[in-house]
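Per your request, structure below.
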């Protein structure tokens, strides 16, 4: 069985392209382990985030493994496996910020950057209605703007933000706090997206996720990236 897997390649530490064009990250390692468990030959295809669901629907690949949150809106367009991880969102701001928390009031009057077409941008637009929410095509672009002083804060998955803060350019900023996920917006976690009606493929992925959790392979990959269990409750 051959499976083509779509991913973004611009969302470290989950999926990222190295300088020499190789894919790396938690999503990629999990995808490879799932393929091995399913005895499938897998090929990765990188795709810009904005066009990733249309590309799946058009048959460019068979599954999306790219930290895609399972949401009701997306479920109208694609089917999802069960989650393979669930980590909370967070807010990062410059070190000299006067932002003291993550509430609507804390961020009132501030400019907030987020990657567009994500649960994080949806949450920001619905919650921070007294703020200037600015959307970016990739996480890398909002990072540049906060480094250069063009944003008061950014929001994303806390793991993505921690990775940024630990990088050379991340010494500009600090984590203000984490946001309690709202299931109606954030969903129950990140899942693998497949085309509607491909139940057999979905169930093969689900069985493989369970197997990785049980055979220790998930923990082995998890511990390479995180100091806690990213699977969540």
């Amino acid at each position: 069985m051959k499976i083509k897997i779509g991913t973004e390649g611009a969302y470290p530490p989950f999926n990222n392209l190295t300088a020499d064009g190789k894919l790396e990250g938690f999503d990629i390692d999990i995808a490879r382990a799932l393929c091995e468990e399913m005895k499938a030959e897998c090929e990765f295809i990188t795709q810009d985030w904005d066009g990733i669901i249309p590309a799946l629907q058009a048959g460019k690949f068979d599954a999306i493994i790219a930290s895609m949150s399972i949401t009701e809106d997306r479920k109208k367009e694609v089917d999802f496996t069960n989650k393979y991880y669930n980590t909370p969102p967070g807010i990062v701001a410059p070190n000299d910020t006067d932002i003291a928390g993550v509430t609507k009031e804390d961020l009132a009057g501030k400019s907030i950057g987020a990657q567009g077409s994500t649960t994080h941008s949806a949450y920001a637009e619905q919650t921070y209605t007294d703020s200037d929410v600015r959307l970016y095509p990739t996480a890398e672009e909002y990072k540049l703007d906060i480094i250069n002083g063009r944003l008061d804060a950014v929001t994303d998955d806390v793991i993505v933000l921690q990775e940024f803060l630990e990088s050379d350019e991340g010494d500009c900023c600090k984590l203000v706090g984490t946001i309690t996920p709202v299931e109606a917006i954030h969903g129950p976690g990140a899942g693998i997206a497949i085309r509607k009606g491909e139940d057999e493929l979905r169930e093969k992925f689900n069985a493989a996720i369970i197997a990785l959790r049980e055979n220790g392979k998930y923990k082995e990959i998890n511990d390479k990236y995180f100091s806690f269990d990213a699977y969540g409750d």
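The chain has a mean pLDDT of 97.

Regards,
D.
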